[in-house]
């Protein structure tokens, strides 16, 4: 079955630490990939997206993600987190020419000041 | 986000009662979606619409129905609310091309007692 897996359920970091969140998908065709962020009490907002071209994608707030096709992965990274990065992060996948996003279960990131 | 509103924002209802949630958009997007968000499950698709009067089921559609009589409104109805339907419900819209991802509403927190 097609699925999106996020490896970490809850990550706790100190400010200035580096962050990497794993995401793997099991779709067989061409995919487009997204990372969304949900700050406490808010709706989901788009962090970054990958469609084609350079597999290293830069998004807002200093986040980046790398698409590794051979590993079916799209990991999110940030070199130095801030307290304001405390949020839940969702990886999402859509098949090319489809219009239904499938989400991973999410990773809660807590950044301690 | 501007252009998509959900109502109500919060609702408490009794088991067995029908409940309708409303999603309204001003973006004239073709595609509209209803998701539910539960801890450990991420977002799961309930129903979606690809045009006026055109709807289809998602992965967790049992106990839910939808209607879309005009482009801007997408209604989600819980026919007979159960405690398992206590959740946060998000509406999303998309222009229909996979490149753009979704824009999400602010969510409706529904509690069934």
Summarize the structure.
The complex is a heterodimer of chains A (113) and B (113). Chain A is mainly β and 113 residues long. Chain A has strands at residues 4-6, 10-14, 19-21, 23-25, 31-38, 45-50, 56-58, 64-68, 73-78, 87-95, 102-103, 107-112.
Q: How would you explain this protein's 3D organization?
A:
The complex is a heterodimer of chains A (113) and B (113). Chain A is mostly beta strands. Chain A has no helices and twelve strands. In chain A, strands 2, 5, 6, 10, 11 and 12 form a six-stranded mixed β-sheet that branches. Chain A is globular and about 40 Å long. The N and C termini of chain A lie far apart (41 Å). In chain B, the strands form two sheets. In chain B, strands 2, 4, 5, 6, 9, 10 and 11 form a seven-stranded mixed β-sheet that branches. Chain B has strands at residues 4-7, 10-13, 19-25, 31-38, 42-51, 54-57, 64-70, 73-78, 87-94, 103-104, 108-112. The relative contact order of chain B is 0.34. Chain B has no helices and eleven strands. Helix content of chain B is 0%, strand content 58%. Chain B has 113 residues and is an all-beta fold. The interface between A and B is medium-sized, with 28 and 26 residues.
């Amino acid at each position: 079955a097609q699925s999106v897996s996020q490896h970490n359920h809850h990550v706790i970091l100190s400010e200035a630490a580096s962050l990497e969140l794993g995401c793997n998908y099991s779709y067989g065709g061409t995919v487009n990939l997204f990372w969304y962020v949900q700050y406490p009490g808010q709706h989901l907002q788009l962090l970054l997206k990958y469609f084609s071209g350079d597999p290293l994608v830069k998004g807002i707030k200093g986040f980046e993600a790398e698409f590794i096709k051979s590993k079916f992965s799209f990991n999110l990274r940030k070199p130095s987190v801030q307290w304001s990065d405390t949020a839940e992060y969702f990886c999402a996948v859509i098949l090319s020419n489809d219009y239904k996003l499938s989400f991973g279960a999410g990773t809660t990131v807590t950044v301690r000041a | 986000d501007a252009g998509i509103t959900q109502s109500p924002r919060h609702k408490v209802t009794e088991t067995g009662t029908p409940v309708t949630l409303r999603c309204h958009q001003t973006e004239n997007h073709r595609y509209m979606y209803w998701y539910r968000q539960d801890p450990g499950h991420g977002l799961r698709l309930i129903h979606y619409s690809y045009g006026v009067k055109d709807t289809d089921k998602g992965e967790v559609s049992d106990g839910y129905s939808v209607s879309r009589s005009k482009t801007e409104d997408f209604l989600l109805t819980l026919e007979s609310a159960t405690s398992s339907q206590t959740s946060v419900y998000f509406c999303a819209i998309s222009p229909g091309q996979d490149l753009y991802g979704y824009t999400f509403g602010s969510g409706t927190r529904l509690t069934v007692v």
